[in-house]
Write a structure and sequence with these properties.
Number of domains: 2
Strand content: 25-35%
CATH class of the largest domain: Alpha Beta
CATH architecture of the largest domain: 3-Layer(bba) Sandwich
CATH superfamily of the largest domain: FAD/NAD(P)-binding domain
Distance between the termini: 44 Å
Shape: globular
Radius of gyration: 21 Å
Order of helices and strands: EHEEEEHEEEEEEEEEHHEEEEHHHH
Structural class: alpha/beta
Number of strands: 18
Number of helices: 8
Largest sheet: 9 strands, mixed
CATH topology of the largest domain: FAD/NAD(P)-binding domain
Length: 366
C-alpha cells in the first residue's frame, strides 16, 4: 500500500499488533505497523500452551504442535489430572498464518523502527509518534502494541515504568510422557517458581522453569538444569541439547485503563495476559478484535471519544475473571515454598469438580 497518511499507526507487530492490523484491514482502514525488530518471526519463546479455540479467531490447525486432553498438576508427592481441551502451539507458524492473511491493500509494515515518543498538540491530542532518528509518523489514532516494553503506555502513565515480570527459560527436549498431556509443577523444589512440560510432535517437548521472584531471575538457567534432575521431570523429559530460550510476561495488578485520547493500548503493553497461568494469546486476540471494532466506529464517526467503549467492553468481558485469577495466582504462589501446603492444595483439587479446575487453569470463570 505505502500510503503517506494513515488512519491508524500501530507500534509493535507482536501478538496484539498483527491481530489488530488484520481486523482493521478487514474494515478497509489504512494501517501502518511499526516494529523495532528486523523480523516478524523473532521470538524469545517459540511455543505456548493455550485453551484457545483457533476457529473463533479465523485460524486453522496449521500452528498446532500437539492437541492436549489433560493438564497434570504435580506437587512433590501428589498429582492431579484435569480433563481439558487445549493445544500446544508453534508461535512461528501461528504468526505466519496471521501475517499471510493481512490485506496488503490496506496494511503496511515497517521493520527496524524504534519509536521513542508520542507527540501531542496544544489540545493534548496525539498527532504523531517519533522514532529514534527523529522521523515522525502521523495518523488519526495510535495504538501501543509494543508488549512489555510499553513504549507509549509507560510514557503517558497508563502502566508503571517499572513493572513486575514473570520470567522463564526452557529447553526443547526429548519427551518420554504421554503426547496428550501437559504438566504443571509446583513445590519447594521449584524455589517459589514453577515448572512446565508441553508436548510437541515427534516425541519432543518444551520443559521450562519460571519465577515471579526478582532474586531468582539471574539463576534461571541453573534452576532449570537443577529441576531436570528431579525424579518427576526425569520421567517426562530427557535433555539432549543446550539451546535455551527465555522471556517475560507482566504481572501487574489488574489494569482496566487502556485509552488516552486517540491512543489505544492492547496486549502486554497494558498487561492483558491472564494472571493465573500466563495464558496470553486467547485473551489478547480477543482484546485486539474488541479494540478493532471500537477503533473502526471511532474512525467512521470521526469521534475518538468512542474509543472509551473499548475499556467498557473489556471490563465487562474480562475484569471479573482477571480479578479472580489474580487472587488465585497470589494464593498459589504464596504456598509454593511449602510442600505440605501444596500437597493439601492438590488434595482439594482432587475433591473439586473437573469443570471448576478447568476454570482455574484457563482463567475463564462462569
Amino acid at each position: 500500500m505505502k500510503k503517506t497518511t494513515y488512519d491508524v499507526v500501530i507500534v509493535g507487530a507482536g501478538t496484539a499488533g498483527i491481530m489488530l492490523a488484520r481486523e482493521l484491514g478487514k474494515f478497509k482502514q489504512k494501517v501502518l505497523v511499526l516494529e523495532r525488530k528486523k523480523s516478524l518471526l523473532e521470538f524469545s519463546f517459540k511455543t505456548l500452551a493455550s485453551f484457545i479455540n483457533l476457529e473463533e479467531f479465523g485460524l486453522t490447525n496449521y500452528s498446532v504442535a500437539q492437541e492436549i486432553d489433560f493438564a497434570v498438576v504435580h506437587s512433590k508427592s501428589l498429582k492431579e489430572k484435569v480433563k481439558v481441551v487445549g493445544l500446544t502451539l508453534d508461535k512461528v507458524k501461528l504468526h505466519e498464518e496471521i501475517i499471510n492473511s493481512l490485506d496488503d491493500d490496506f496494511i503496511d509494515i515497517e521493520l527496524g523502527v524504534h519509536i521513542k515518543e508520542i507527540i501531542a498538540d496544544a489540545e493534548n491530542n496525539y498527532t504523531a509518534v517519533k522514532d529514534k532518528n527523529g522521523k515522525e509518523y502521523t495518523a488519526k489514532i495510535f495504538v501501543d502494541a509494543s508488549g512489555t516494553t510499553g513504549v507509549l503506555s509507560k510514557k503517558i502513565g497508563l502502566i508503571p515504568k517499572i513493572t513486575d515480570l514473570a520470567t522463564g527459560v526452557e529447553y526443547n527436549a526429548k519427551y518420554l510422557g504421554n503426547d496428550n498431556e501437559i504438566h504443571l509443577l509446583i513445590g519447594k523444589d521449584y524455589k517459589g517458581g514453577y515448572g512446565w512440560v508441553f508436548p510437541l510432535k515427534n516425541k519432543r517437548a518444551i520443559v521450562g522453569f519460571g519465577t515471579f521472584d526478582k532474586i531468582m531471575i539471574k539463576g534461571l538457567k541453573d534452576n532449570l538444569n537443577a529441576i531436570l534432575e528431579l525424579p518427576t521431570i526425569k520421567k517426562l523429559v530427557l535433555k539432549d541439547n543446550d539451546i535455551v530460550e527465555g522471556g517475560s510476561i507482566p504481572i501487574t495488578p489488574v489494569i482496566d485503563k487502556f485509552v488516552s485520547g486517540n491512543l489505544v493500548c492492547v496486549g502486554d503493553s497494558v498487561s492483558q495476559v491472564n494472571p493465573i497461568v500466563g495464558e496470553g494469546y486467547k485473551f489478547i486476540f480477543e482484546s485486539a478484535i474488541m479494540a478493532s471494532k471500537v477503533i473502526h466506529q471511532a474512525l467512521i464517526k470521526d469521534d475518538v471519544k468512542l474509543l472509551s467503549m473499548y475499556e467498557d467492553q473489556w471490563k465487562k468481558r474480562f475484569e471479573p475473571n482477571y480479578i479472580r485469577s489474580k487472587v488465585a495466582q497470589k494464593r498459589i504462589f504464596s504456598l509454593t515454598k511449602k510442600d505440605f501446603l501444596i500437597d493439601v492444595g492438590l488434595v482439594l483439587l482432587k475433591l473439586r469438580a473437573n469443570k471448576k479446575n478447568v476454570e482455574t487453569l484457563s482463567g475463564e470463570y462462569n
